[in-house]
TrEMBL record:
<dbReference type="InterPro" id="IPR036188">
    <property type="entry name" value="FAD/NAD-bd_sf"/>
</dbReference>
<dbReference type="GO" id="GO:0050661">
    <property type="term" value="F:NADP binding"/>
</dbReference>
<keyword id="KW-0560">Oxidoreductase</keyword>
<protein>
    <recommendedName>
        <fullName>Flavin-containing monooxygenase</fullName>
        <ecNumber>1.-.-.-</ecNumber>
    </recommendedName>
</protein>
<dbReference type="InterPro" id="IPR050346">
    <property type="entry name" value="FMO-like"/>
</dbReference>
<dbReference type="InterPro" id="IPR000960">
    <property type="entry name" value="Flavin_mOase"/>
</dbReference>
<dbReference type="GO" id="GO:0004499">
    <property type="term" value="F:N,N-dimethylaniline monooxygenase activity"/>
</dbReference>
<comment type="similarity">
    <text>Belongs to the FMO family.</text>
</comment>
<keyword id="KW-0503">Monooxygenase</keyword>
<keyword id="KW-0274">FAD</keyword>
<dbReference type="GO" id="GO:0050660">
    <property type="term" value="F:flavin adenine dinucleotide binding"/>
</dbReference>
<dbReference type="Pfam" id="PF00743">
    <property type="entry name" value="FMO-like"/>
</dbReference>
<keyword id="KW-0521">NADP</keyword>
<dbReference type="InterPro" id="IPR020946">
    <property type="entry name" value="Flavin_mOase-like"/>
</dbReference>
<keyword id="KW-0285">Flavoprotein</keyword>
Length: 364
């Protein structure tokens, strides 16, 4: 998951303390800090500064208003030729709609606010979701809670089964409704009295600082219109977005997106006409419809992230994503499904690890 020319390897970054192949978030932070130091990026970052608004001026430049956290007033306005939006999409929680939940007396929270399992001691917890956060948090909470029930909308309506390896963890179909007496009813008709509903339901794209002059809208988590998930055709290349795709290896993809944007802004790469960029976006939406994917999966790259990466690399005259990296991602996806409780400690791709370590030598 490291940047392409800065290996994320045990002991590679200054201050590395977690040698595990699947390290904790503290090690990821140390890696990012080491990357910033290595390439002298900190001098370019204004920490604790909020962007209040980004609006387009008559001459095509962008007025950016920002303010230091804790300060009052209207903020400082500066003018730029281009704006690249990199604010991420793991801040604004997406909350499941549950009929009757307003009268339900329990506590609701989102995975964004989850930290440790101890507050759930002896409680009955429902975890909504079927992806990584739901999987990890449900098992973490199960170490303390009386019962944990996972509600998965993709599970058949009749689903109600105990999970292997646990005496207090069950998988259900989605919640049907909640009741005033604390009962939560699932689609299979089963019900429990729960203390907490944990929403592991993802996030919303949110750009509160952008106005209508950005020319983009967000509808059911589709940021539209965008050329290659980056440039709004109407105002390209002077407004762009980095990091919208999900179900990806984020750092290499963001790096290649950034290289492409930099080359476009510097004039080394010329974008297609506005009409051609719009046509490309419409063709992409037709492919999603043919695949049967809902609109909210517009930026889900689970099936074609490397195809996209390699397209970006080709645009930038950069080598494609390394074959060992692609294979390692595929093998570990299979391993995670086969060994959900132990994939962090057991794997069968040591040959790929060795190949990666040999590749890293040119950068270490």
């Amino acid at each position: 998951m490291g940047f392409l020319d800065f290996p994320f390897a045990a002991g590679a970054a200054a201050g590395s303390r977690d040698p595990r192949r699947f390290p904790g978030h503290e090690e990821v932070l140390r890696y990012l800090e080491a990357f910033a130091r290595r390439f002298d990026l900190l001098r370019l970052v204004r920490f604790e500064t909020e962007v209040l608004s980004v609006r387009r001026e008559d001459g095509g430049r962008w007025a950016v208003t920002s303010r230091k956290l804790g300060e009052k007033g209207s903020g400082d306005e500066e003018f730029y030729d281009a704006v690249v939006v990199c604010n991420g999409h793991y801040t604004e929680p997406r909350i499941a709609v549950i009929p009757g939940v307003d009268a339900w007396p329990g506590k609701q929270m989102h995975s964004h606010n989850y930290r440790v399992p101890e507050p759930f001691l002896d409680q009955v917890v429902i975890v909504i979701g079927a992806s990584a956060s739901a999987f990890d948090i449900s098992r973490d909470i199960a170490s303390m809670a009386e019962e944990v029930h996972i509600a998965d909308r993709s599970a058949p309506a009749s689903t109600c089964k105990k999970q292997p390896g646990y005496d207090n963890l069950w998988l259900h179909s989605m919640i049907d409704h909640a009741q005033e007496d604390g009962t939560v009813v699932f689609h299979d008709g089963s019900s429990i009295k729960a203390d907490v509903i944990m929403h592991c339901t993802g996030y919303l794209y949110d750009f509160p600082f952008l106005g209508d002059d950005s020319t983009i809208t967000v509808d059911d988590n589709r940021v539209d219109p965008l050329y290659k998930h980056i440039f709004p055709p109407e105002v390209a290349p002077h407004l762009s977005f980095i990091g919208l795709p999900w179900k990806v290896i984020p750092f290499p993809l963001f790096e290649l997106q950034s290289k492409w944007v930099a080359r476009v802004l510097s004039g080394r790469i010329k974008l297609p006409s506005k009409d051609k960029m719009m046509e490309d976006g419409k063709a992409f939406y037709l492919k999603l419809e043919a695949r049967g994917w809902p609109k909210r999966y517009t930026h889900n790259f689970s099936n074609y992230q490397f195809e996209y990466d390699d397209w970006l690399a080709e645009q930038c005259s950069h080598p494609p994503i390394e074959e060992w990296r692609k294979q390692m991602y595929a093998v570990n996806s299979v391993n995670t499904a086969a060994r959900p409780e132990s994939y962090r400690d057991e794997w069968d791709d040591e040959h790929l690890v060795a190949e990666a370590n040999e590749y890293f030598k040119k950068f270490l």
